[in-house]
Amino acid sequence: MRTFLSAVTFFSALYMPIWIFMLLALGLSVRYRAWEVICVAFIIDCLYLPIGGIFGLPFLTTLIAATFVWGLEPLRNRFVFR
To answer: How far apart are CA 36 and CA 27, in angstroms?
Structure first.
């Protein structure tokens, strides 16, 4: 299941709007400790963002993905059974 969600997240990052990627990344981060979300977000930033970034932040998508992965760690530890 994790491999399938990671593949769908990767392809959504390439071919779909950014908000679909963010929803899939959020879902993947809630269920798993998903380091691949940060890697895919970095690839998105390198491929699509201009040199100056958005609002002066050069890696905005990577920062949001890192917040998903590390910020949701306490929620995942509390509610997800391993």
So the answer is: 13
pLDDT tens, per residue, the chain with 82 residues = 889 989 999 999 889 988 898 899 888 888 888 888 888 888 888 887 776 666 666 777 888 888 888 888 888 778 776 5
Domain boundaries along the sequence of the chain: 2-79
For 53: left if phi > 0, alpha if psi spans -120 to 50, otherwise beta; the answer is left
Which amino acid, one-letter code, is at 40? V
State which H helix or E strand residue 76 sits in: helix 73-79
